[in-house]
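Example 3.
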Amino acid sequence: MRPDARSSRAVLKRAGVPADFETLALGEVARVPAADVIAALKALKDSGYESLIDFDGIDTGDDITLTWRLRSYSADRETYVRTSVAYGAEIASVWNVYPSALMPERETAELFGMRLAGHPNPKRLLTTDGVPPLLLKEVPIRTEEEVKAR
Amino acid sequence: MSDPRTTVTTPGLLAEGTHDPGTPPAGIKRAPTGVDHLATEHLVINMGPQHPSTHGVLRLLIEVDGEEVVTVEVSVGYLHRGIEKLAEHRRFNAIGTLMDRGDYVSGIHGETAVALAVERLMEIEVPRKAQWLRSLAAELNRIASHLVWFGTFGLDTGGMGQFLYAMRDREAILDILEAITGQRMMFNYARPGGVVADLPVGIDEKIRAFCDTFDTYLDEHHALLGGNEIFQGRVKGIGIIDAEKAFAFGLTGANLRGAGVDFDVRKKRPYDAYPELDWEVPLGSAGDAWDRYMVRMGEMRQSARMIRQLIDGIPEGEHTAKVPKVLRPPAGEIYACVESSRGETGIHLVTDGGDTPYRMHYRAPSIFALQAVEDIVPGHLIADTVMMVGSTDVMLGETDR
Amino acid sequence: MSPTLAVIVRLVAVLGLMLTNGVVMIYLLRKVLGHLHIRLGPMHVGWHGLLQTVNDVLKLLTKEDLTPRAVDKVLFFLAPVVVFVPSLMAYLALPFSEALRATRLETGMLFTFAVLAIVPIGILMAGWASANKWSLLGGMRAAAMQIAYEVPLLLSVLPIVMIAGTMELGAVVDAQAGTWFGLVPRWFITDPLLWPTFLIFLISSLIEVNQTPFDMSEGESEIVAGFASEYSAMKFALMFLSEFSNTFVVSAMGVTLFFGGWLLPWAPDSWYEAVPALAPIVFLTKAYVGVVLLWWIRGTFPRVRIDQMMSLGWKRLIPAALAMILITGVVQKLLAPVLYRAVG
């Protein structure tokens, strides 16, 4: 019925999604251009990666790296999809492919100062309006007033 | 049911049958079909963050038609402390304290995840005894956490009886954990390299005594709540999350196993002492609230079984590996996950060779469970809303981080 | 004593009984629930917390009476009155003994259940007037419950009326005097024919007094405190008191109808004449035992869902109550004469 989840390399090649592959301590990572993320995830989901387990961002200093962690329960296999986007860019929501991305996307967008596209409820999740994107490296852990008061 | 505004049953100006009012031209929102006298007005109710059944500070915005929920929106963030940001400014040994405050009812699991991540990055060989001690504390903590869930789930249904009985047993566990770790809830016990202290003298007798009484107590708990027909009527067939939906919303833990998916991190991604233990993974089938209830009750029994094996078989040796005071893992990236009381707690750790993480992402299972709640609640009654939030066992400390 | 004075004395006595009763029952509830839940309940004010409730009453009396701005002021004020007064009136017909009762009503049974039926109207008023969505839901639930449950409650006691041949509560007690075969007291509860009736009565009265498993209109874990959310100080105390007093009244009705009222098993009539206080003491003790049993249920059971409760009421209890009336009638008319001759 459902094809066995295979290596993301084979799946993405067949789907014609341009991707670079690397094997980190993390596991098998497919780096795809931001515009092709949805196509890549769709291909991977069709090939048996049923579930999006995690989604997060990393502020690398040059750009923001987004990581999707996919798992196939039938094949007991995990794979990562990764892309880099510029600061303040727009994340295209993948909730049509993996509904579990709904809240993590909101969270990542607000904590890294990104905008969401195609999200059904593009609101802030954890913080209130006016709070700076906390997970950016340039946002200090304490405000200047707090530092002065210490 | 047919829409009274588009279905004509008594011929008048229009013939009998379904009648299409047509699409309104641009600039007009809706065809002027007149007032439907039978339609009731929907009411938007704000449930929480101070509602008694929202398990902390969850806020649900529910739109109801009478008592039936039409839409629900989950609103979290009332407990946001920026654990991920704070972790970037803490040394690796100190992150455990933050993790305790994430899922504050079962802190050991978050700590263990961080410790595993750092150990795997630094390739530290953890002594076997340390692994067993971690598993022991983790399983004790799992029972304590499930007991809190059990008590409050009963409270959600309106029963008061089981709550303090569950708390009584939890108290016994917290006493044991206090003796082992020095703390009742915020342990900071599992550290990179091992655990912070060896077992105190004589605690094994206490743990054995607890295990002996707990099996009977667990039967009592189940008879008191699960054996009640009213309770069964409330949870059976309610809030069905089948495997398909569980995959779609990224559920893990008992919520996933309730749907019959055999995935337990302790079995599939073994860590600590679990590969050496003899135990089973309880599974549900339909994925309704009753299955999730039974899975958690089964997990408590399995945990007690594991605790017996752990306390009987604690190996000799050091309780921690020799690790430097200041941990500096090499630059790299790792993902470590553990089976916490609520599902898969994951730590995505990115290091740059310094003494603090470059980035630490905390995968909280509860946030995924809440997304499923948004999907399963509509169509049920307000009373069931409370039950479904309870049955997924969400912990707001970890959704908000 | 002039008749007017007598009426006033009786009313004051009933009011006094209700208030004292409330204070005692609140203490009792805390202790009963406490011990059911392996804790102690109040312990610090007075010996074993005996004075705790007195303290709480004083606190409620001296608290600021808040009226939220958006409420319907007239109804908001009237609702506690409409809840409280029927509860008070329900004491009027209770037979504490042959002589000791506020008034002797030929239709005492009907009267008591009829005045208790007014209480949900007050709850609906409170829910509507509070201008709070949770309160509104609570009020609506109370109204729905009233319609679904007054009917089986009244129908369930009709077999008793058929057997006793009267609605006067004292006479119902008298009808339960004596023993079967000189052994079993002839209370209606010992009559197997009335066991289903008693079950229907028990379920309906749990709903009547708004208690777990049927505390829909309050439903703490669902709709916070339902109709009572916006009430504070004495207005809240009145509603609270009314709820407790209803529990007592329902228990007292159960005792009167099924457990032989003030009668002790096997006690000869001479005892009651010798010690006039015996009958009321027996009655109160029985009623309190009934109350404690109701609280046992309250402290143990989860709550049913509103739709489950509605289907229980309409689909099960009402047909069952009607069937019991039919069966009792048939048995009473056709079989009882034969049976009584056989038993002697």
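Chain A has one domain: 8-149. The mean pLDDT of chain A is 81.
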